[in-house]
Amino acid sequence: xxxxxxxxxxxxxxxxxxxxxxxxxxxxxxxxxxxxxxxxxxxxxxxxxxxxxxxxxxxxxxxxxxxxxxx
Length: 71
Description:
Shape: globular
Strand order of the largest sheet: 2-3-1-4
Distance between the termini: 16 Å
Structural class: alpha+beta
Low-confidence stretches: none
């Protein structure tokens, strides 16, 4: 299992609801969550063999910014 961390432009629970179907449709993602209280609106993803670039493009197709962070 690996954990990926992203800064996003998703700021509201309604926006999380918009990307939820995209994230839950990826079989390699075991768990995911947003921290909207963080200044970077963090998205954390736990799974196996997930490309950070794939997640970035997935979120961007929904109209939001997404960039992997080093942690």
